[in-house]
Design goal:
about 100 residues, mainly alpha, Arc Repressor Mutant, subunit A, 2 domains
Length: about 100
């Protein structure tokens, strides 16, 4: 089997493609000849980037006083204010 040396970016892309195809970390390690640790570092980068986006969204949502502290007794009313806050965030992003 002719294996060429990959650059770091090519290795990361290959790991991500294999992971998105549903391969386990063990299978990825066999195919790419990388350590479990290196594969974990690559996959954690992607997870952290997604988590940052979610955390910032909830930070923006909590900036509204009405949502930050739940004053409403009914969950449906509170959900309405959360939806209104989401609409305000989207309007701010698409200006």
């Amino acid at each position: 089997m002719n294996m060429s040396i990959m650059t770091r970016q090519e290795g990361e892309r290959l790991v991500l493609n294999l992971y998105n195809q549903g391969n386990t970390i063990r299978e990825i390690a066999k195919q790419t000849r990388m350590s479990f640790r290196d594969i974990g570092v690559i996959l954690n980068k992607v997870v952290e980037e997604k988590a940052e986006g979610v955390e910032s969204f909830f930070g923006w949502l909590k900036s509204s006083r009405r949502i930050q502290t739940r004053y409403e007794r009914l969950a449906s009313t509170y959900l309405g204010f959360i939806q209104l806050g989401c609409i305000m965030i989207l309007m701010r992003l698409f200006r």
